[in-house]
Write a structure and sequence with these properties.
By secondary structure, this protein is an alpha+beta fold. The protein has a domain of 236 residues: Orthogonal Bundle (Hypothetical protein af1432), CATH 1.10.3210.10. The protein is built from 20 helices and twelve strands. The strands form four sheets. Strands 6-7-10-11 form a four-stranded mixed β-sheet. Strands 1-4-5 form a three-stranded antiparallel β-sheet, with helices on one face. Helix 3 packs across helix 9.
Length: 430
C-alpha cells in the first residue's frame, strides 16, 4: 500500500512522467513495516510503468504450486532491497565512512532497478522465449532509457550497477555474496513461503558491515549471523528454489513455451496477448532490445498475466502436446520427478520415452517435450564469486571459510549437483 497526497500525470511519447508534491511517501511492507521513499526521483522511478510492471511478476514463479503463500512479487523485493540499502548506507556513515548524498542516491537507484529487466515467471522466459539475453542485460537497457527520461540523474546509479564507479564497495552492496539483494530475498521468501529455516537476521548483518580497502567486510562479532545466512541460503535453495516439484513445474512451463514458439515458427495460429505475440513470433536478440524501441516497449508490457492467460487458452488447442502441457500447468497435474546424485541410465530414460510415445501417440521428436532429464546445482557459498571477509579486532581479515570456528564452510563451498528425470505420472518404469 502507498500513502501519498497528490500527483500529476503528464503524458508524452506513450510514457508517463510522474511528478508529486514534496510529501512523505510510505509503503507498509509486511516484512519490514513502514518504508519511507528517500526522495522524489526514487518515487518517480517507482511510479513509472517500467517499474510498475514488477507488480505483475511473481518473485518465485511457480513456487506457489508448492508453497501457496509464495505470491509476492518482484516489486515487493525491489522496494525491500532499497530499504536495506538505505539502512546499510546509514550504518556505514555512522561508522565514519564517507558516502556522499549523490553516491547514496546512486546505490539506491542501482538496487531498486537491479531486477527491472526480469521477464515473467522468473528465469523461465530467458530459456524459452528470448535467447542470448539475460535479465541483467535488459535491466541495464531499462536504466539507460530511464536515465534519458529523467535528465541523466541515474548516471551514477548505472555506474554502480555496472561496477564502473571507483568506490567498488557500493557495487558489492548491490551484487556480491553478501548484498542487499540476497538479504532481502532470503528474508522475504522465507516469510511468504513459511519456511522458517530461511529466516536470517538482516538487521544484525547490516549493523556488522564495515569497509576496509574499498571492500565490504563483516566485523568478527557478526560471524555467527553470517554462518546462519550461509546455512539459510543452502536450505532455501534445496527446500524452496530447487524443490523437486518446483523444478518439475518450471521445466514444464519452459516446455510449453518452447512448443508454442516452435508452432508459431511454423505459422500455426496461437492465441496470445499483443505483447506476448511479439516474442512468440520473432527470434529476438540483445541488439533488438537496444536498437528497437518497440521491442522494449512490448517487453515492458509483458508479465505473468500474459503468459498464464495464453496458456489457459492453449488448453483447448488442437496440438496435443501444447494442450496437454497447458492443462497440466493450469490444473496442477505436474509431472513426476525423480532426483538422484548420479546421472540416470540411458536404458531407463529411453524406456520412459518409448512408453510415453505409445501412451500419447507421439513421435520421437515430440516425446522430448514430455520426458526430459537435466541436472541442477547450487553453491551455498562460492568463494569464486567473491569472498565474505571477516574483520577481527586486531585488524586482520580472513575469508569466511577460514574464519568460521563452529561450521565447516569449506564443505558448503563445494557445489551440490543433483540429476533429475521428469515424465507424466501415467507412465511407470518397468
Amino acid at each position: 500500500m502507498i500513502f501519498k497526497t497528490s500527483q500529476n500525470l503528464i503524458k508524452f511519447n506513450d510514457k508517463l512522467s510522474l511528478t508529486a508534491a514534496n510529501k512523505r511517501k510510505i509503503f507498509n511492507d509486511p516484512v519490514y513495516g513502514f518504508i519511507t521513499i528517500p526522495n522524489e526521483l526514487l518515487f518517480d522511478i517507482i511510479e513509472h510503468p517500467y517499474f510498475q510492471r514488477l507488480r505483475r511478476i511473481r518473485q518465485l514463479g511457480l513456487t506457489h504450486l508448492v508453497y501457496p503463500g509464495a505470491l509476492h512479487t518482484r516489486y515487493h523485493h525491489s522496494v525491500g532491497a532499497m530499504y536495506l540499502m538505505n539502512l546499510a548506507i546509514k550504518t556505514l556513515r555512522d561508522k565514519g565512512q564517507e558516502i556522499t548524498q549523490e553516491e547514496a542516491n546512486g546505490a539506491l537507484i542501482a538496487i531498486l532497478l537491479h531486477d527491472i529487466g526480469h521477464g515473467p515467471y522468473s528465469h523461465t522466459l530467458e530459456h524459452s522465449i528470448v535467447d542470448g539475453i539475460l535479465h541483467e542485460d535488459i535491466s541495464a537497457i531499462y536504466m539507460d532509457k530511464l536515465n534519458d527520461l529523467y535528465g541523466n540523474q541515474l548516471e551514477l546509479g548505472i555506474k554502480i550497477f555496472r561496477n564502473e564507479y571507483h568506490k567498488t564497495f557500493l557495487h558489492k552492496l548491490v551484487s556480491s555474496q553478501l548484498d542487499m539483494d540476497r538479504l532481502d530475498y532470503l528474508k522475504r521468501d522465507s516469510f511468504f513461503t513459511g519456511v522458517s529455516e530461511g529466516i536470517i537476521n538482516a538487521d544484525r548483518i547490516i549493523k556488522m558491515l564495515q569497509i576496509v580497502d574499498d571492500d565490504i567486510v563483516v566485523e568478527a562479532k557478526g560471524i555467527y549471523s553470517i554462518e546462519k545466512f550461509i546455512i539459510a541460503r543452502r536450505l532455501m535453495y534445496w527446500q524452496v528454489y530447487l524443490h523437486k516439484t518446483v523444478v518439475a513445474a518450471e521445466y514444464m512451463l519452459m516446455k510449453v513455451l518452447k512448443r508454442a514458439k516452435e508452432l508459431a515458427g511454423h505459422g500455426v495460429e496461437l492465441f496470445a496477448t499483443t505483447a506476448f505475440k511479439t516474442f512468440l513470433n520473432q527470434q529476438l536478440t540483445k541488439k533488438d532490445f537496444i536498437e528497437n524501441e518497440e521491442i522494449l516497449r512490448q517487453f515492458s508490457k509483458l508479465d505473468d498475466f500474459d503468459i498464464f492467460t495464453s496458456i489457459k487458452e492453449w488448453t483447448n488447442h488442437s496440438d496435443k502436446i501444447l494442450s496437454y502441457l497447458s492443462q497440466c500447468i493450469v490444473n496442477r497435474r505436474l509431472f513426476r520427478i525423480e532426483i538422484q546424485s548420479e546421472p540416470f541410465s540411458d536404458e531407463k530414460f529411453n524406456d520412459f520415452k518409448l512408453k510415453t510415445m505409445r501412451e500419447f501417440g507421439i513421435s520421437e521428436n515430440e516425446v522430448d517435450y514430455l520426458v526430459f532429464k537435466d541436472l541442477t546445482s547450487n553453491y551455498a557459498y562460492n568463494p569464486e564469486g567473491g569472498n565474505i571477509n571477516i574483520l577481527f579486532k586486531d585488524g586482520t581479515i580472513a575469508d569466511m571459510s577460514k574464519a568460521a570456528d563452529q561450521l565447516n564452510i569449506s564443505v558448503l563451498s563445494q557445489p551440490v549437483t543433483k540429476h533429475f528425470l521428469c515424465y507424466p505420472k501415467v507412465i511407470n518404469y518397468r
